[in-house]
């Protein structure tokens, strides 16, 4: 066998939409018996800015950990004890890219993420994380906007 069973993964960014995605994912995980993982990405641009300002690597790592815990705390609160996450994954990099790499490396993943609803102009010029993930995802993605 060797293949891992399918799991539900929630991309956590601390937003209300992300919390709503976590709640919906918890309902599905509870109903299907699938495992639920929490995933957050510390933006590499933030780490780079800290490094440029001369922040020591240990402090950057501590900041990354704190960021992850804050994102996971919001998601865990939204789960309302429906299901216990089996893992919390904190990555560093460009969020859409890191989420897509995670999905490629975990092919049996059903991703849930919130859509923040940026303006049309911003979405067209920069693209949103959810749009990039949907466009290039290698597995199922559920986007929650409310």
Automatic annotation (TrEMBL):
Residues of the UspA domain: 7-144
SUPFAM superfamilies to which the protein is assigned, alphabetical: Adenine nucleotide alpha hydrolases-like
InterPro entries: Rossmann-like_a/b/a_fold, Universal_stress_UspA, UspA
Entry superkingdom: Bacteria
Family the UniProt entry places it in: Belongs to the universal stress protein A family.
Protein name per Swiss-Prot or TrEMBL: Nucleotide-binding universal stress UspA family protein
